Amino acid sequence: MIQDTLGAPLTLPNGQVVPNRLLKSAMSETIGPLDNRVPETMKTLYGRWADGGIGLSVTGNVMIDRQALGEPGNVAIEDDRDLDELKLVAQAGKRAGGLIYVQLNHPGRQVPRFLNEDAVAPSAVPFGPKMASSMAISRALTDAEIEDIVQRFATAAHVCEQAGFDGVQIHGAHGYLVGQFLSPLTNQRTDRWGGTEDHRRRFPLAVARAIRAATGDGFGMAIKINSADFQRGGTSEDESMRSIQALAAEGMDFIEVSGGTYEAPAMMGARKKSTVEREAYFLEFAEKLRSSLQVPLCVTGGFRSGAAMAAAIDSGAVDMVGIARTVAVDPDFPNRLLNDGDVRVEIVPRKTGIGPIDAIGILDLIWYERQIKRMSEGRDPIPDEHPIWTALGVLKTHGFDAFRSRRAR
User: Fold this and answer.
1) Whose CA is closest to 167, among 78, 57, 243, 64?
2) Is 275's pLDDT higher than 60?
3) What range does the domain containing 320 cover?
């Protein structure tokens, strides 16, 4: 039965037990205040998802540096100043018996211009014409700055452990800094941090080792990583497989596979007919990876029905399935899957009918963030809310620039 497959517990390498095979993949909540501290609403939000039956929640896009934000409303962890608030979030996220990990991230060059003019990256590679006008101009990191960022990841992980979270997930996908180091397109360095495939891999390996050194044996560590960048000159599937194998050897407790960057957003939609039929965007890559990987594997992107999720797990390709937008519109979706089996949530493009706004293509993301914000305030999402209200609310608060800048998410 579908319920038996999705409801089976999973033991991670560190001994933690995920009560079911459903992972809430990270989504940027964008509910943080102007000072990027941890808001009380974050506790409410993750308690709501916990009550909905999710087995493992991954928080969205927590930054390790307040001077390097991916978007407005990010939460940042630089030290233990928010330890008490983080403890409340951890407790809420685990109150129904599931686990909760914090996704740690640095945006690198993928920063809106209005947030930070001084973006940093492995190399000073500009964006293409579609994004160049809204993105900050990046400069190449110095060796000392790279070492500092590595330690920032470790410090944030240590604080998360103190707060009672079960683990952290390194964000190595979607064109952010870790992925920038891995990609030959954005990493054109010739020092120890670039130039060869092994050298491009040095940064994420250093981050993983620093986190392991800063935390205890039972604390979880995972990574979200691209199957490929889907950009000419970017990371290929073969190179990504080798990177995943190298990172797994550093003691990952699970690996979540996604794909694309915000210049080539494969994570936003299916790429071919076989993917549409099976729902999951990156399942074929996971099948190739499975034979050489013993670490628990999760695929996120495209799952809408219990039948497709159970089929992916029963095939042996993955151990968990990642869901995101489905729980932004229906936080009880996991419980419905575990109780009733083959239920589904339909996800449709959100359009206002206003050509210039819809053409930007970013309203869809903001619509889901609006539903997340409602849950963080103790309200229910509105699955049929017309996107025009989202557009009007954003225009009133941030002006038209907010639509262009959100390409950085």
Assistant:
1) 57
2) no
3) 2-350
81 HSE (CA, 13 A, CB side): 11
Determine, yes or no, domain membership for 370. Answer: no
How far, in whole angstroms, is CA 79 from its chain's centroid? 22
> What average pLDDT does this structure show over 315-342?
96
Spatial CA neighbour of 343 closest among 334, 354, 352: 334
Give the CATH number for residue 180: 3.20.20.70
Q: How many CB atoms lie within 10 A of CB 245?
A: 14
Q: Give me the number of domains the chain comprises.
A: 1
pLDDT exceeds 70 at position 264 = no
| pTM passes above 0.70 | yes
Q: What angle (nearest 5°) sits at the alpha carbon of residue 116, between those of residues 114 and 119?
A: 130
CA–CA separation, 348 vs 60, rounded Å? 22
Beta strands 297-300 and 254-258 are: parallel
Residue 19 lies in a domain: yes
391 located within any domain? no
Residue with tokens 């493009």: 349
Is residue 104, in this structure, part of any structural domain at all? Answer: yes
